[in-house]
Design a protein that fits this description.
Layout lengths: L6 H16 L20 E4 L1 H10 L2 H22 L5 E16 L16 E23 L3 H68 L6 H36 L7 E4 L14 H11 L1 H22 L4 E12 L17 E11 L4 H69 L5 H35 L4 H4 L3
Parallel strand pairs: 1-4
Antiparallel strand pairs: 2-3, 3-5, 5-6
Protein name: Outer membrane protein TolC
Family: Belongs to the outer membrane factor (OMF) (TC 1.B.17) family.
Main location: membrane
């Protein structure tokens, strides 16, 4: 007996472990706002679309990113509100105030007390004093400062939104890998179950031949088979352990740990994704137009440009319409009607007019303008850098898919030969001309190639998903339609 081993199972199991540990799994909750009222023992089959949707809904990381979008919208609304009376304040004052009396006993009318030179505070006459002052300032012309500030805040919304979309796509890519890892584990489990039955039959045949004293095998063949069987049992246990680990990862990702729901893939078989590859240039072009990272940096550059224009407008005087209404009342202090005389304790006035506001610290204004220019240039350079990085990233992912596709086609050819070999050995053995060691070698090689094929299918699917993600395609729209 020759070359009995199951190395591909070990590499596939290791690959599954790396996938599971790298996937972002998220706490439980509700799926798409729908309460999952099912019994704790229920098993629910989910499609890939449902799996991505439920898991993304439970992602606390995505929830946090979404709050950044809401904060940006709040800042934008604040900027828009600055167009209408941005300065509108009410100031009040309340307290005790003494009255007034003439020290010489002069008898002046209450509206002419200011003419009495002997008028003094009356410390024996106290009353409550109340004052209200409302000030409003409405910009009329600001040289585009407010308009550009609003545009900058709108670009800030886009920055946060594209950042959220980039994170969402990354999470869904990791979830897709978790989905593929589950299918790979299920395929390996099926292979071990089928192989276990065949191994039991082969063992009985070997023992039977040894007992009969057949010269087809010797003790060395039997010992090699026993070693193979123990190695297979160890790897079989690894498959079971990884199945349990993946089930736990799925439960965490889908938020089903408390409900007790067991989610399983709707499609239980791992098949290569049937999607024809386009040219590398087409993926690069699509990435430049649709990748959230590119759109995010473009929005950063737009925000910096609008901020620069708003800062330049600060160098010119802004025209404002201002209004101030003031009312004060103290019952022990008479109001003076003379327009040139003011009694601050008992008065009412309204002032309306146009005015200019100008920051006279021109050196500070120049520094701020230069800083805005630097920020705009920084965003432009960052955009070029992101585009260069994306082109390299897409090229690398495209190369990986081509390599994975070639490996898959090669292993499928080898597997066809292996199946023919195994079928021939089985026929020869059934009609009495076969060699049991050759039959076991054929079975072992076929099992090895079956495991390699499943791993290569998984590898191709994951690499294709990475390429599409790098190209700016939404995985939930491609693989779930």
């Amino acid at each position: 007996m020759r070359h009995v081993f199951l190395f591909p199972f070990s590499s596939a199991i290791l690959y599954l472990s790396v996938i599971c540990l790298s996937v972002v799994v998220l706490p439980q909750g509700k799926a798409n706002g729908q309460d999952l009222n099912v019994a704790a023992s229920d098993t629910v089959s989910v499609s890939l679309s449902e799996f991505l949707s439920i898991a993304a809904e439970h992602s606390n990381e995505l929830r946090a990113r979404k709050q950044s979008v809401e904060l940006a919208r709040n800042r934008n609304q604040e900027a828009r509100n600055s167009r209408i009376v941005p300065n509108f304040t009410l100031t009040t004052a309340h307290g005790l105030i003494p009255g007034v009396r003439s020290r010489d006993g002069a008898d002046f009318p209450s509206s002419q007390l200011y003419l009495d030179p002997s008028l003094r505070n009356d410390w024996e006459d106290w009353a409550f004093f109340n004052q209200f002052e409302i000030t409003a300032l409405q910009p009329v012309y600001t040289w585009g400062a407010i308009r550009n500030a609003i545009k900058a805040s709108q670009a800030g919304i886009n920055v946060s939104l594209f950042e959220y979309q980039a994170q969402e796509q990354e999470v869904k890519l990791q979830l897709f890998q978790l989905w593929q890892g589950k299918l790979l584990a299920m395929e390996l489990e099926r292979l071990t179950v089928e192989a276990e039955r065949t191994i039991e039959l082969a063992e009985r045949e070997l023992i039977k031949l040894l007992d009969e004293g057949s010269d087809e095998i010797d003790d060395a063949d039997f010992y090699q088979f026993e070693i193979f069987k123990f190695e297979f049992q160890a790897q079989q246990e690894e498959v079971r352990r990884n199945i349990a680990f993946l089930e736990r990862a799925w439960a965490i990702a889908l938020g089903s740990r408390e409900t007790g729901i067991v989610y399983v893939p709707e499609d239980r078989f791992l098949d290569p994704i049937d999607k024809e590859l386009d040219t590398l240039d087409s993926y690069v072009m699509q990435a430049m137009q649709a990748r959230p990272e590119v759109l995010q940096i473009e929005s950063v550059r737009d925000a910096a440009g609008f901020g620069l224009e708003a800062q330049r407008a600060q160098r010119f005087p802004a025209l404002f319409l201002g209004a101030t209404y003031r009312y004060a009342y103290a019952p022990n202090r008479p109001r003076q009607r003379n327009p040139f005389i003011s009694n601050p304790a008992n008065t009412e006035s309204l002032t309306v007019g146009l005015g200019l506001r100008q920051n006279l610290n021109f050196f500070q204004l120049q520094n701020r303008t230069e800083r805005s220019q630097l920020q705009f240039r920084q965003a432009s350079y960052a955009l070029d850098a992101v585009r260069d990085g994306i082109e390299l990233d897409v090229s690398d992912k495209y190369k990986d898919v081509r390599v994975a596709s070639k490996r898959l086609s090669t292993i499928e050819g080898a597997l066809d030969v292996s199946r023919n070999w195994l079928r021939q050995e089985q026929l020869d053995y059934d009609i009495g001309f076969g060699d049991i060691p050759n039959l076991i070698d054929a079975f072992t090689k076929n099992l090895e190639l079956e495991a390699q094929q499943k791993q290569y299918i998984h590898d191709f699917n994951v690499r294709l998903a990475r390429l599409l993600n790098a190209g700016g395609f939404r995985l939930d729209q491609i693989f779930t339609n």
